[in-house]
Amino acid sequence: VQLFERRALWRVGLGLAALGMALEIAQGTLTTTRSFDLADELANTAGVLLGLGTAFTPLRDLLPRSADRAG
Questions:
Q1: What is the average pLDDT value for the chain, to the nearest integer?
Q2: Is the pLDDT of residue 4 over 90?
Q3: Are 38 and 25 in contact (CB under 8 A)?
Q4: Are 54 and 60 in contact (CB under 8 A)?
Q5: CA 11 distance to own-chain centroid
């Protein structure tokens, strides 16, 4: 079951990438034990893009299909 239309997925992805950036900035400015790391932000964004990419392939239904087989 897909929760979002494909068009809305891009907005969700943008929101997730923005959230990742906001968390990295908060780590760098609001704490003394954590720091902003651009590599972390790039990894977060890459994960969002990979996740969005699977939504446009047959892999999008991989988990529901495997759950049906297991159940």
A1: 85
A2: no
A3: no
A4: yes
A5: 11
Q: Sorting pLDDT into bands at 50, 70 and 90, what band is 71?
A: low
pLDDT by residue (tens digit) across 5-62? 778 888 989 999 999 999 999 999 999 999 999 999 999 999 999 888 887 787 777 7
Cβ(20)–Cβ(44) below 8 Å = yes
What is the distance between the alpha carbons of residues 8 and 40, in angstroms, rounded to a whole number?
Answer: 25
Q: For 4, what's the count of Cα atoms within 13 Å in the CB-facing half-sphere? A: 11
Taking residue 24's Cβ as centre, other Cβ atoms within 10 Å add up to: 20
What Rg do the C-alpha atoms of the chain give, in angstroms? 16
